[in-house]
Amino acid sequence: MNLILLEPSDFLSATQVRLTGRRQRHVLEVHQAQEGQQLTVGLLNGQIGKGLVTRLDETQLELEVSLTTDAPPALPLTLILALPRPKMLRRTLQHACTLGVSRIVLVNAVRVEKSFWQTPFLQEQAIHEQLVLGLEQARATQLPEVLLRKRFKPFVEDELPALCAGSQCLVAHPYTEQACPVADERPVTLAVGPEGGFVPYEVDKLMEAGFSPVHLGPRILRVETAVPVLISKLFY
């Protein structure tokens, strides 16, 4: 936890915060903080600063906080991600959030198993927990927007054109000649398929919507590996 992420409900006053649960235990057990020690804190979707420990015991942590610095900005990137298997979903959400994705759209695809959509990891609170872990790692505060779209064709035909308007639209596809480029000055909309990739019909539909297929070289990567590599090639 490189940053203790605060939410508005944590505040007792304009500068006083009380934490319990996971964050309190982490400060006590991992940071081994003591009263009078300063910790790095940040407000969800807000600024970063310092928190002075004024009380810390087995049940709660109180901080006097001062938020003075802007957080790292989110990338101008929308990630359209075919829903991965549940365990991979959690890791991929964390990685995407750590790297600064602004919006994540989880979509269906032919090679996405129907049972994946029943996982409790798609519940709003479960998704929020993974995004928070990603922000804590990155020392960032900007929470990505997450959308769930269970029907591929209606999403691509009816919603995607407006969603990606004015952006550099790319679809990860290993069977193409164009290598993944560095992002230009436009925002980026990046589509990544499931294990095994998008089927040809899905690639064609994305191309009809203005997407260009790109590859990462001769090796076939797992989704949780491909997403960070693609983002790194585009922005870092």
UniProtKB/TrEMBL annotation:
It is an enzyme of class 2 (transferase). Its EC number is 2.1.1.193. Residues 74-232 form the Ribosomal RNA small subunit methyltransferase E methyltransferase domain. GO terms for cellular component: cytoplasm. It catalyses: uridine(1498) in 16S rRNA + S-adenosyl-L-methionine = N(3)-methyluridine(1498) in 16S rRNA + S-adenosyl-L-homocysteine + H(+). SUPFAM superfamilies: alpha/beta knot. One of its GO terms (biological process) is rRNA base methylation. Belongs to the RNA methyltransferase RsmE family. NCBIfam families: PRK11713.5-4, RsmE family RNA methyltransferase. This is Ribosomal RNA small subunit methyltransferase E. It comes from Proteobacteria bacterium 228.
